[in-house]
Structures are given as structure tokens and as C-alpha cells.
Write a structure and sequence with these properties.
By secondary structure, this protein is an alpha+beta fold. It contains 6 helices and 17 strands. The protein folds into 2 domains: about 5-120, Roll (Diaminopimelate Epimerase, Chain A, domain 1); about 120-270, Diaminopimelate Epimerase, Chain A, domain 1, CATH 3.10.310. The longest helix has 15 residues, at about 75-85. The radius of gyration is 18 Å and the shape is globular. The two termini are about 25 Å apart.
Amino acid sequence: MRGRLYRYAAFTTTPQGGNRAGVWIGDAFPPADEMQRIATEVGYPMTAFLAPARGFDRKVRYFSIEREVDLCGHATIACGIQFGQAEGEGEYRLATKVGVLPVSVRRCCGRWEAAFVSAKPRHEPASSALLGAALAALRWREGDVDPLVPPARIYAGNWHLLIAVRTAARLAALDYDYERLKSVMLADGLATLQLVWRKRPELFHARSPFPVGGIVEDPATGSGAAALGGYLRDAGLLQAPADIEIRQGETMGRPSRIAVRIPASGGIIVSGNAVPLEDPA
């Protein structure tokens, strides 16, 4: 199946920052095993496959190094920037496994910016068994958890386990048991862990283990950002409408900035920049 592969760093304005994504574009999807082979070979946290090659309405499938996932936020932002560079500003629509994702693309202050509207967010309390297993794999204690942001399973296209911690130091000291956490996540159907420290009401620092995708840590997690925004609103932890910023990837040397707009109801709007990367030699 013929197509072209592009490479981007998303949620950043420099190639050294953000989360890398492959964007494969063709007239039709390759077979699933071929898409997985390409994604594994690319080696980025995610590669998005899009068909047809042009137009405002397309289908998309997302593959990590190890498996297909229903939705990926940073790869969606990368797709939006590629659309803008190839076809211009506009309102694009991506048909995903969890529904149609509106993606708005514009050029602002000399840079391309994309925003997507998430699926309707949901959340539920994290069971004591799940939280205990996750904390054990993280080598964290219950006393590290911030009681003002209770742990929860959160959703905006993928399920994530949210754990907020009391201190920046606790978040910075992330050294988890990879295989143990992967088993916990696979058993509970989790895409990532969304580990956060709330510096101010509108500013969160985040880290996101992604062992189920073959990645130790995600430098930017758009679907997790959307799920966090929905949880904060629907659990009454902030007054919507509101805007928050999530900073991620800093401890990895790939700083990312995720802008999250939380309307009074409906899907959460996640926006950011992305820049093209040169093909590896």
C-alpha cells in the first residue's frame, strides 16, 4: 500500500521538545499488521495512519510501538499541523474508533496551531485495589497522594488512571517497575497513567508512564490532558468554563505545553503546536 510518512514533534515549537509522532498518509490503509510494522520501525510513541490522502474528512488509526490504541492526542495535533501545511487552515474531521474528532487548524503569530474536541469525558473512582497496585508499581505511598484531587479512572477517548501528588519532588522522583505497572494497566484497560502535581489552580505538571505502548514515559499526552480537564469539571474541582495549562516532558528533556479549554459542558478542547522533524539518516 503506497503512502508517505511524515514526522513531527507535538505540543512544542522546537524539534527538541514535545512528543514525537509519525503521520502516515495514503489513499487507503495498509493491512493492520503492516501498520504495526511501520509504527514499530518508526519507534515513536505513536504513529497515526490517515486515509484518504487529502480532504477535510478522513479516517485515522493510531499505533504505538507495540499495539493499536483507540485515540492519541499528540498524534492528532501532529496530523492537524500536517493538514495545515499541506492544505491550509480549516475545520477537519477525523473518524476514530471512538467517534468523529473535530480538528481545527490555523496559523497564528507565524506558527501552526491545532485543536481537537475530545469525546464526552467520563470518570469513576479508582478502586482501592487498582490504586494500591499502581502505587506499589510506582514505589509510591498513599501519603504521597493529594487528597484535594482524588484518584480516579478518567476518560476522554482512552481510559487513564489519574493520581495527583502533594509535592513537585514526588512527581520528579519517578522510577517505577515497568513490567509490574504494565500488567496492572493491561488488566484494567488503561492507556496511560496521568500523574500530576497541581502547582496552581490553572497550572499542572504531569508525567505519563506508557508501558502498554512499549514506552517508559510519554513526553506529552493529549488524551490524558482532555480526560483530566473533564474530570476537574465534572467532579466539581474547578468552575467551568476554565482554561488550564499542562506542562509535561520537562524531566525527560523534551518540554511540552498542552493548552486545555474546559467548557461548561461537552467535550474538552486540547490545543498545541507541532513542528516537522527531519527523517533520520
